[in-house]
Amino acid sequence: MASTPQPASKGRRFHRKSRYGCAPCKRRRIKCDEKKPVCGNCAQRSVECSFKTLAPTSNNQQLARIAVENASRSITGGVPAHVSGPGAAMPFCRSDTRDLELYCHFQIYTSTTLAQPASLESLYREDIPSLSVAFPFVGHGLMSIAYIHLASLSSQDTSKRLLAESAFHVNKALPGYSEAIKNITEDNSSPLFSFAMFVVLFTFANSSEESGAHLQSARNQTSLQEKTIRDLGTTAARVARSIQNIFGIFWRCQHWISSGPLSPVIRRYLPPTLNDSSIEWIRVEDEQLARLSRLWEDGPTAPIQHSCALSDSLACLRDTFAMVTQLTVIPPEDIEAAAAADPDSTSRSSRDELANIHSQLSAGHLHDAPSVFTWYIRLSPDFIALMEEGNVYAMVVLAHYAIVLDRACAGKWWTHRLAQHFVAMAEVILGGERKAWIEWPLMVVAT
Predict the structure, then answer these.
(1) pLDDT tens digits, one per residue of 88-137
(2) Right CATH number for 23-53 from 1.25.40, 2.60.40, 2.60.120, 4.10.240?
(3) Residue 19: burial class (beta carbons within 10 Å; 0-12, 13-18, 19+)
(4) Where are the domains of the chain?
(5) Gap between the Cα atoms of 375 and 349, Å rounded
(6) How far apart are CA 41 and CA 32, in angstroms?
């Protein structure tokens, strides 16, 4: 008697586990091809892939383990080999938080976004993290930036929690930083400069968030309150002081930094040869900026000290515009295309010409990104005080600075919407009757 055939098994078909798969694939329990930034399954189903948003996919302990394993595979010498769990040999990482995950996030992801040019990536990925072993305040500064970066990629509710973690790490770092800065030596000069860079990035992000909240409050007021004006001005002035602080450290230990691991950060680049278009753009914008001095020179009498501070800040701004334009490289084909589209540029209105210049330069590549911050370095204490008070003329100058800031840093997660907020601050403080004073910033910087 023939044996009765057994029914075919309907068990689950097994496949190689996708250990590092994205969150949607893990939820569906299907194999993830782990393609970045969007895996094949998510692309096919048109769903949000966690590789794109860098969203967490499990609990903190598991995330830390996976992050360390990923980092060990991807980064040569990045994460110390002896790291086996949160906080191991890293006093700035707390064991009951996402700190170790974010430490690895900085090395794998954040470092690549900060590296300009790309040749600086190993400095942010390896050199600066290595300083945190002997100088924990550098580690806390690194953590604060990692949390801000992840916050920029997260939902609003999650972002608030991440920003709070960032502030925690900055506050933890300040005592050690304050103690070290009392006695700058060759050994601590690079750690101090590294942390000062992190503080600038933290200030940018924090000021953007803070100014956004103040602007929302201002727009809800029927009559703008003096406190709101001062809050807006204080936020703007804080950025200036933060940038001046980092250069204060730099001037005190330039000879050590220039020969240490951070020397590539301070290396400046020779400007490319100016072409005819760039020369014309500099001339047009400089003429527009020069007219701003008439506001305080022809208007109500301003104290001579204020007038001098405003004129000096404007002169610095004109220099910054010209420098950034000279350092911005426009592909030849783009220049030729623009000329072919409108060969008679003299027929354009002033508004159209300014808008076209901004569009062309925004699409170019700025070789020396820190050049956009030279305006801040040269600001006098008197001008910063005027900005802090919400002085209308200082706000006009700030709004015009926002043009070149937007041009150089649009899309950077660490500036977020700071340029737009600067223009919006000026618009709120100036009011409708003086809105024409910032027509150019309002036109080219979307608020």
Answers:
(1) 468 899 888 999 999 999 999 999 998 877 778 889 999 999 999 889 99
(2) 4.10.240
(3) exposed
(4) 23-53, 60-180, 266-444
(5) 29
(6) 7
